[in-house]
Amino acid sequence: STPIKSSAASDVYKRQAMIRNIILIYIFTIHCIGCHENDRLIYTTKPSVFFPDYVTGKDSVTYSFRMTKEDRDTIYLTAKLVGKSFETRTPIGLKIDKDQTTAQEGIYYEMEDSYWFELGKGEIKIPIYLIQGGTDIDDDILTIALQLIPTEDIDVAYEDKSRVYVRITNKLVKPSYWEDLLIIYFGEYSQVKHEKCIEVMGHDFPLTMAEIATFPGSYSYFMTQGRTVCYYYATHNEVDENGKKIEVWDPF
After folding, report:
1. pLDDT tens digits for 31-45?
2. Other CB atoms closer than 10 Å to residue 102's CB: what's the count?
């Protein structure tokens, strides 16, 4: 009987060792995930600033005057602070990257002279004033390339989140977050369906996915609108811009 007891004890020991290894691997994995963002943080003893992703993995937003029917409009970009908030009103460093900017200032956009973190605030809303001032955007998409730069008081937090690109056009543009969210409510994208959505809702989709949460009715609103658009195509035989029949989808 002795060998049996020894074997049982050995099995228990092996199981305990395996459980310990699994726990250690789990802790290590969580640690790596938690440190991933910090690993990209540029070392600094000063507060620092970055642009968040407007859609996962995306550093740009696209604005279409065709969708809004406006001649002038304002969009707001968000810059966030890493570190302790300021005890006094503090300006950030922001410049136009002229090498990557194709939109002419004064014709297609205007900006403030400076942008500031207010007392105790951890983020700033940066207004960009867009103008439908020429015909270059009728068949093209122009770009405003913005870049955060260090100042005496604020550093840049992440090099890969120091830029944002504002793209402006008169063309109908697929929302950048369609595949991340809107496909749930409105199915596969097409320009024809997009125009129908605007007709049904009376407006276009918000510029960024972050704005969905601040939209009246939030997600439930777009769920209802998606069902309305789906019902339309269930009762109307129409094709998209490529001649493909717009099929009914299963609205969320």
Report:
1. 444 445 555 555 457
2. 15
